[in-house]
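Let's inspect one such protein example.
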Amino acid sequence: MENHCEAVLSGARALLLLIHYWLPVMLGWSLALVIQRAGGWAFSHTGLTLLLAGIGAAYSVDRIVDFSEQGEISSWLKGMLWGGAAVCSGTILFLIAAAQIDTGTLEVVTLLSVLRAYP
């Protein structure tokens, strides 16, 4: 019975960590709502999805890197983070292809992102 309780607590802890790690996605959504209501602009669904998927992918990969440097991470949580990063990255690639973003713009955004990520 004690092992079962420990397993439940470990799973609950991993779920709480996952919610905490993906909280910035909700913050991005909230910020977009505030800006939309303050300015009275219509949402760009593609832009909002790119923003939220970018936040989700970046935070998922960041947490995986942090845990690999610090120590143990449960396999369930690691799988969820990798899955979230993969889904968000796939969404970003699909939307970029569907929106037919100019390659020059895409190159500049990618270059600035890489330069920002590796100071």
Q: What stands out?
A: Residues 2-117 form one domain.
